[in-house]
Amino acid sequence: MVRARTVVALAALVLVLLSATSAGNGAGAQEKQERPDPPKINAGAWALEDTETGLYLAGEDPDKRMPIASTTKIIVALIALERGVDLDEEVTISDQAERFVGSVYSNVGLISGERLSVRELLVASLVPSGTDADYALAEHLGGGGGKAGVENFVEEMNRKADSMGLKNTHFENPAGLDSPEHYSSARDMAEIARAALEYPEFRDIVDTEQATISTQSREIEVFNTNDLLYTYGPAIGVKTGTSPEAGPSLVAAAKEGDESYVAVVLDANGDQYRFTAAQKALDFAFADYEREALVREGQVYEKVGLPFRREESVGLAAAEDVPALAGPGLEVERRTTTDEPPPEARSGEDLGTVEVLVDGKSVGSAPLVTEQGYEEASLWQKIQYWTSGAARSVSGWVSGLFS
Prior knowledge:
5-stranded antiparallel beta sheet, 17 strands, 34% helix
């Protein structure tokens, strides 16, 4: 009985030591703290994500399908920039685009026959939320004037959503006009905004408080409808949206130091409240999360045995840092993969990879390199390796024979 207890105690000790070793070298280690309570936001749905990695941090009903009003215009800009359209190319305003002047709240008063560059149409669409400019842009990108061009472009919008894996998004028009089959979700809109923010031209436009656009005969001054740009220091965009069905909505982005987040608030409880709500979400992210090196350069994350030497190994260290978001509630995991070690290697030779996952999402990786070099095994070491292996095989065979 005493012997059995001793064996159990020793086994427990071994498990503790192995756990400590694993935590020390980082291979396969997992770290997680309790997730903090998110802010209380009065809206139909909302979501908060890390801009760089797309990690979902907080929200309520983030996948609920909802009307999204003019936040739709973000994907129009994304497609234009992704295509590499010449931003200086001129576009002529059509009768169809002009008909939105006076018929919807958001327009910049463009007149049929006026000519503006693609860049100015993007400014007019994203800064004051000009639906007339948005339709002119959709016609141009759709390959033809009038209704056919818009329909072609809307099909492309839906193809883009599908290619991004957005399961709760479908478009019926390029501007977010209310329609039963025009919807998205807070999480999907965060993904669209993240993709658009990769383009410097988009970042510059949505971070613009005031601009002047020009036709061949006049200048039009426009102002950004996103109040956060005027009241919240870290704000860098992105887009407002309001309609009878969607209510007041906002896709907001903010950056402070090396941290950047996107907050989406759909159907907020009040026109001004959407800005308050988005700021609460963004402040929550800045307060509770931070970017740090989840893999550190020079730290050993794995070991591999040396060829023909049973008791010898070499440490594999990360060749560079892997910075990513960390904080309470985020589970950090490190996965290592190693190559077959060559007969000999120099210090710093690439023999594997360490990948970092946060909440199961890959956020980066670094090469694993030899901590120090080693020489090829000598003939005597190879003989010892094979003879010891043969002896073990014979011992195992004999043990099995008499067991």
